[in-house]
Amino acid sequence: MTGGWSDEAQRHLDGEGPPPPDADERARAEAFLAATRGYSAWLRVPGPQVDRAVMEAVRRSGGRGVRRSVWRWLVESRLAVRPMVAAGAAFALVIASVALTLLTQPPNRPTAQPPTGGSGAGVLVRFELDAPGARTVALAGSFNGWSDHAIAFSRSAETGRWSVTVALPPGEHQYLFVVDGERWVQDPAAHAQVRDEFGQTNSVLVVGPRGVVRS
Amino acid sequence: MGRAGEPECDAEVVGRVLAGEIEVFGVLVARYRDAFARYATAVCGDPDLAADAMQEAFIRAFDGLRGCRQPERFGAWFFRILTNQCRNHRSRWGKHEAADPAGSVTVEAKESADGALMQGELRDGIARALDRLTADQREAFVLRHVDGRSYREMAELLVEREDVLRMRVHRARELMRRFLEERG
Predict the structure, then answer these.
(1) Do β-strands A154-155 and A151-152 pair in parallel, antiparallel, or remain unpaired?
(2) Is residue A56 part of a domain?
(3) Same structural domain, B82 and B124
(4) Is A45 exposed, middle or buried (0-12, 13-18, 19+ CB in 10 A)?
(5) Which of A42, A136, A175, A185 to mutate to test the interface with B (most CBs of B within 10 A)?
(6) Phi, psi of A102 (to 5 degrees)
(7) How many Å apart are CA A170 and CA A54, to the nearest integer?
(8) For the domain that residue B127 is a member of, what is the CATH number?
(9) Does A38 touch chain B (CB under 8 A)?
């Protein structure tokens, strides 16, 4: 017999329905399930020798890769839990960066809007994305621990564009848009995109004390 | 709760490793080697290739640990690194004919041991049929049928919608059935 599985058989093979009514297909489905279970049990899988080899390599590296990353881990993506000393150092760097940028760059912000107000929590910045087919859009970045759902965009009924306004502290921020909870996309209107050491490219936004400096 | 002094959640472990306690990385290695070893073997189609892919994936994860943006989801992040490594190893070292993912024990020996020749042929057929699938289909099928994961778990690991994965597994089963029937 040739041909594909019936819908009933597919549901049964997914574990979501009774066996298919046709006796021949039922037998084939049960044999298929038994074969996959047998195949799974038959596999010889890597064991603790993998652990030993990995940890030997890690020790040989002396943790160089991790030490490189400690600084960025402290100052970039976990603002809420960073030690005060690191926060102070980071703040000093941010102020220096913003001051330098203010001196060298005119305000130019194609997607992020000037602040409509300010507070102790930061500067209000507006993000926009034209994604007509999207079901959801969220903002993830160094300012929210790269959470892929904490800052949700809303869609304008008139223009169809997605937007959100958030309060950001002064400094340089990296961010991405998360479309439909699964696709991480860059801001096409961002002034700069930077590639991190792990091969990911992020959009960059610089916020000054009085508004967006670069986006 | 874990043993005293042993970090329990991934985020804690990642934090300690990033703070310089590199030996603690071994907790993550043991945890996710155990969780994904079967997947790696089935996807690579060879236990030695799988061991190499897992080692490489863990070392890359260690080197790039600061790129793990959601340390509480280290497992999903590592899974994507592992999947890439499995694909690389499979294409780099070739996997044109199904090797014996069960290792050095011959099929005949195993059949004489369990006396289920027909079942053994089907099992061997599954291994060979997996080679005929695309990488996406193979990974989805293995997660569903070899690892026994739910579509929800698969969606989280593969960063894909459940309905897309369901269709992928259905398609894989169609192709495998066709292959098994042609094979007789």
Answers:
(1) unpaired
(2) no
(3) no
(4) buried
(5) A42
(6) -60, -35
(7) 41
(8) 1.10.10.10
(9) yes
* Closest partner CB to B65 (pick from A5, A53, A69): A69
A21 and A89 together in one domain = no
Residue A1 tokens, joined: 């017999």
Cβ-Cβ contacts under 8 Å for A64 (sequence gap 6 or more) = none
By residue range, what is the domain housing residue B86?
Answer: 8-96
- Strand residues in chain B grouped as ranges (E): none
Indicate the residue type of A109.
R
| Residues paired with residue A183 on neighbouring β-strands, in sequence order | A179
Q: Which among A35, A58, A70 has the least Cβ separation from residue B62?
A: A58
pTM, two decimals, is 0.59
Tell me, yes or no, whether B16 and B78 share the same domain.
yes
B12 and B91 assigned to the same domain: yes
Judge if B90 and B122 occupy the same domain.
Answer: no
Which domain covers residue A180, as residue numbers? Answer: 76-214
Distance of CA A116 to the CA centre of its chain: 28
* Cβ pair A145:B70 closer than 8 A: yes
Q: Are A201 and A186 in contact (CB under 8 A)?
A: yes
Are B12 and B82 part of one and the same domain?
yes
ipTM for this prediction: 0.81
Note whether A186 contacts B: Cβ–Cβ < 8 A: no
CATH of the domain at B26: 1.10.1740.10
Tens digit of pLDDT per residue, chain B (184 long)? 445 555 579 999 999 999 888 999 999 999 999 999 999 999 998 888 899 999 999 998 998 888 788 888 899 999 999 999 999 888 876 554 444 455 544 444 444 445 455 566 777 788 889 988 999 999 999 999 999 999 999 999 988 899 999 999 999 999 999 888 887 6
